[in-house]
Amino acid sequence: MSQITVVGGGLAGLVSSILLCRKGLPVTLIEKKRYPFHRVCGEYISNEVLPFLIAHDLYPENINPASISSFMLTSVNGSKADLPLDLGGFGISRYALDHFLYEQALAAGVEFYHETVTDITLENNGFKVITERQVVEGQVVIGAYGKRSRLDKKFDRDFIKKRSPYIGVKYHIRYDAHPRNAVALHNFKGGYCGISRVEDEVYNLCYLSERTSLKVHGQIDALEKEVLAENPFLEDIFNNAEFLWDKPEVINEISFETKQPVEKNVLMCGDAAGMITPLCGNGMAIAIHTAKLVAEIVTKHITKSDFSRDDMEREYALRWNALFKNRLRTGRQIQHMFGAPWLSNTAVGICRYARPVANYLMSKTHGTPFH
Ligand SMILES: Cc1cc2nc3c(=O)[nH]c(=O)nc-3n(C[C@H](O)[C@H](O)[C@H](O)COP(=O)(O)OP(=O)(O)OC[C@H]3O[C@@H](n4cnc5c(N)ncnc54)[C@H](O)[C@@H]3O)c2cc1C
Q1: How many other C-beta atoms are found inside a 10 Å radius of the C-beta of residue 175?
Q2: I need a surface site. Which of 5, 51, 171, 190 has the fewest CB within 10 A?
Q3: What is the distance between the alpha carbons of residues 53 and 58, in angstroms, rounded to a whole number?
Q4: What is this structure's pTM?
Q5: Whose CA is nearest to atom 8 of ligand 1?
Q6: Rounded distance from Cα 349 to ligand 1 centre (Å)
């Protein structure tokens, strides 16, 4: 019996598995896809994770991540504000980053199964993690399966009962007109589109749009021509950039509803515990930070006989809430400023003329650097 089973191999699952395995604890990670693969993500990572990644030899220096130090915001009608980022960040494709971490996990001794988990049960203090092919038994399960999964239905989680209003679309492009060290957020009616550089002089173009908007326009390219291109910055990108894929990566049912960090004795990690709105550019940092937290607390439970399952669950929920609950709430509040033309103009006005307010809001969405 493997002591720890991790469900899902995104950033949260990979990083927690590496840390646990490096402590000498046996870990099985079950991920339904095979690496490397693309995912919908803006691929801008806040520098709050940099000291941690460097300290644990998990910063993928050889891949040459892009350094990002300034922020550009444009409104639906194209007015623009630029400001320096307080912490800054780096850009790297998930294709490269997740694959790099997968290799680190293999080197640390993590056992991988590429299967879909269909159910998780706890009986007599032991978990059964059920896939289409087998049952994996374990003492602790970490749920790192991302923003939404059929498992959430099994757990009867509240957020899964509501339809989510957003879709996400991602491309990799070449586009020289964008400043190399800036991350931009271009607003359009019903959504916003980020652009920033990743490795190899490639740019990530990724947007979040209301699902109803796609329904009205029928197809992704019609939505882009008729809605996104109303913003002159986006119009220029769609007319002049070189699109590197035949078709974009698309996901739907993106929800920012609150979730619980522990559900049916499973410790939820990354987006499975709660997803911050993408405009904050912080979901990946939070996934990595929750991975560190969960690894510390699970290690304590397994190595200390007087730290029970109840103690472990209580401490994880407490520390998760202290670190992330307010950031997720601020993200939801800022999200309301985007999508409507007059509100996006107000947001640009704040960045231009009320810099301290903009800096304050920005600082509320990211955490402090950690080791
Ligand atoms: C449009 C958009 C743009 C974004 N832009 C940014 C950004 O620029 N910067 C940033 O920091 N964050 C951004 N984010 C958020 C970021 O992508 C997530 O917060 C981050 O990927 C969370 O990592 P995770 O490990 O929790 O989940 P994921 O990376 O989603 O990994 C979950 C994994 O679990 C697997 N899985 C799911 N169900 C099962 C199952 N039943 N069995 C086995 N495996 C399963 C999946 O295949 C997947 O590999 C964005 C999100 C969206 C939607």
Answers
A1: 17
A2: 51
A3: 5
A4: 0.96
A5: 42
A6: 32
* Sign (positive or negative) of CA dihedral 233, 238, 240, 241: positive
Distance CA 115, CA 248 (A): 25
- All residues at 6 or more sequence positions from 342 whose CB lies less than 8 Å from its CB, including other chains: none
Ligand 1 pocket at CB < 6 A: 7-13, 30-33, 40-45, 116-117, 144-146, 149, 151, 168, 194, 206, 208, 254, 270-272, 275, 278, 281-285, 287
Tell me the three-class secondary structure of 111-140, residue by residue.
EEECCCEEEEEEECCEEEEEECCCEEEECE
d(CA 343, CA 264): 40
Q: What is the mean pLDDT of each run of 10 residues along the chain (371 residues)?
A: 88 98 98 98 96 98 97 92 92 98 98 98 93 96 96 94 90 97 94 96 96 93 97 98 97 90 97 88 93 98 96 98 90 73 77 76 75 90
Q: Which domains does the chain have, with CATH numbers?
A: 4-163+255-365 (3.50.50.60)
Q: Which residues of 1-28 are buried (b: 16+ CB within 10 A; e: fewer)?
A: ebbbbbbbbbbbbbbbbbbbbbeebbbb
- Tell me, in angstroms, the distance from the centre of ligand 1 to residue 2's CA: 25
